Amino acid sequence: MKWIAAILVALACCAPAAAQERLVISLSNQRVAITSNFAGEHLVLFGTVQRGAGAPPRDRGYDIVVTVTGPKQTLRTRRKTRVLGVWVNVDSRDFVGVPGYLAVLSNRPVNEIADREILRRLQIGLDNFILRQHIGPDFADTVPDDPFRVAFVRLESERGLYAQDADAVTFLTPDVFRASIPLPSNVPTGDYNVDVKLFADGKMAAHTNTGLDVIKVGFEQYVADAARDYGLLYGTATMLMALMTGWIASVLFRRD
Amino acid sequence: MQIYLPIADMPVNIFLVFGMGIAVGFISGMFGIGGGFLMTPLLIFIGISPAVAVASVASHIAASSFTGAISYWRRRAVDIALAMMLLAAGIVGTAAGVALFTELRALDQLDLVIGISYVLLLTIVGALMVNESLHAIARARHGKSPMLRRPGSHTWLHGLPLKVRFKRSKIYVSAIPVWAIGFIIGFAGAILGIGGGFLLVPMLIYFLRVPTTTVIGTSMVLTLITMASATVMHAVTNHLVDAVLALILMIGGVIGAQLGVRTGQKIRSERLRLMLGLLVLAVGLRFTYELVVTPDDLFSIRRVENGL
Q: Which residues contact A113 (CB under 8 A, 6 or more apart)?
């Protein structure tokens, strides 16, 4: 009889949660194809908040935070120092397994949506997202104002790969929202995760996520595969292409 | 018009890259240098990662030096025997350079060594060439022969044993300095990632007294062989040769090189040396400025490829 009791306990604890809000989201495009004229793309995410029977009244409305993370990369941030009168890269830090793309999109500034402790725990916002660094033998994230971390986030933001936008989510009705995800032309290829969190009264009420692929197609895919899998053949072909181009030019330009 | 580069993973303006190919190809054809020391920084400047830039530039140089070499070959201005001896020495030098490169990387002082030696090399070679060619031009003004090869102008290099005759260049010199020059070019090329044409041309002129007419064609044949093999090696080891980028660059490069060869043959040789000297000096000073002046941004990001 113990297991029946366990099920009853489980139902008792989880039933109210299921009866609260639920998020239903849909992405305009789950597969971004990089072709020869790819110059960046804006994806649109639509979502609705489905209120269960047990959902408490939310007089202050909902907040949405969308966190899009790209494929993991290891990126080295280097700092120049003056040595013997010249500026050279001396110190460096490796950011290990950090997303190659990171966008935090919300309907208003994240620090107005929830308090710092909650944001930190849920890794919401560029300051709170854990960016692991290789420091000596350890892997750890540092304080948000660590100079290497600040420089890393700033440089990635300048390249359009890291972004935090408090205007990117708009509510069309109190329950229906729309988010615009900017993918710049230099986005890394790979699997992306789109994580959507619903906040009400400063607390997370629901969350869901979906995937997104950024892939090269056609000719771009073919060239990238050939370069990776058939290095010798690819290199020889490129060299022959160079010789052909050189020879054709000398024939075309021959006057004597 | 933008085109997406499949290996560099970014779009570039096709006309901008094409124009850069023509400009560097022109300089390459005119002076018989590869032009990598100009093209690589240009590509990095437009946002292409240094590793992809270095690997892809090699094939561009191969194309423009091949078209240049054909033109000089037709004009009978290539000394193939000299080129082959330099090449053999260059291979030995490259092996030594790669060994030192690995050693320096282990000591973590690579950036400093590369930065300083690059600047010193460019500035000194450029200044020497400018100085010499200005003297030659002045001599020509006074009605004297501007030629370097005057009777009795033989240096101690010509007194060394193991003499070899290079018929096309009309020189009879010891094989020792030829091997030394080839070794230095290969060594510098491996450490600094340059083809070394801008070093080879002045060394052949000043040390071996090779006539300027055969120097350029000979240097081009050497550049062609090293860069064609560098293309294949980069593709095999790093997989970072961007064929689309390379194709745009090389089409521009061969057109520029053809025009450069024509222009170069019309200009008097001491003027040509002065122009090359000024160019090398300018690039050297530009790098000096970059090393000495406090940079706008002390930080930079580089993607770590395969844990390197």
A: A63, A65, A106, A119, A124, A199, A202
Residue A163 CA to chain centroid, in angstroms?
Answer: 9
Q: Which two tokens stand for residue A247?
A: 């020879």
Residue of A nearest to B245 (CA): A238
Of A154, A242, A256, Cβ closest to residue B63: A242
For tokens 């700033």, name the residue.
Answer: A154
Q: Kindly determine whether residue A234 and residue B244, on different chains, have CB atoms separated by under 8 Å.
A: no
Per-residue burial over B241-257, b if 16 or more Cβ lie within 10 Å, else e, is bbbbbbbbbbbbbbbbb
Q: Measured on CA atoms in the order B13, B18, B24, B27, is the torsion positive or negative? A: negative
**pLDDT tens by residue, B11-54:** 899 999 999 999 999 998 888 787 888 888 889 888 888 778 88
Question: Based on C-alpha coordinates, what's the Rg of chain A?
Answer: 25
Q: Six-digit token pair at B161?
A: 């044993």
**pTM of structure:** 0.78
> How close, in Å, is residue B48 to chain A by CA atoms?
11
DSSP B157: G
Q: Report the candidate in B83, B43, B304 with the shortest Cα–Cα distance to residue B185.
A: B83
What DSSP character marks residue B156? G
Do residue A245 and residue B251 have CB atoms under 8 angstroms apart? yes
Neighbouring CB atoms inside 10 A of B294's CB total: 8
- Residue A85, judged by CB atoms within 10 A of its CB (0-12, 13-18, 19+), counts as exposed
Q: Helices A231-252 and B50-74, interaxial angle, to 10°? A: 40
Reference B57, options B199, B189, B219, B216; nearest CA is: B189
| CA proximity to A90, closest of B11, B111, B280 | B111
Distance CA B32, CA B223 (A): 9
ipTM: 0.80
Token pair listed for B289: 């400025």
pLDDT, tens only, B61-99: 889 889 888 988 888 888 888 889 999 998 888 888 878
HSE-CB for A70 with a 13 A CA cutoff: 24
Amino acid at A245: T
Judge: A155–B246 Cβ closer than 8 Å, yes or no.
no
Q: What percent of chain B has pLDDT over 90?
A: 12
Output the DSSP codes for A54-93.
TPPP-TT-EEEEEEEE--EEEEEEEEEEEETTEEEEEEEE
How is residue B15 written in tokens? 């006309």
Q: How many CA atoms, within 13 angstroms, populate the side-chain half-sphere of residue A13?
A: 5
Q: How far is residue A44 from each of residues A26, A130, B121, measured CA to CA in Å?
A: 9, 26, 54
What is the 8-class DSSP label of residue B117? H
3-state SS assignment for residue A148: helix
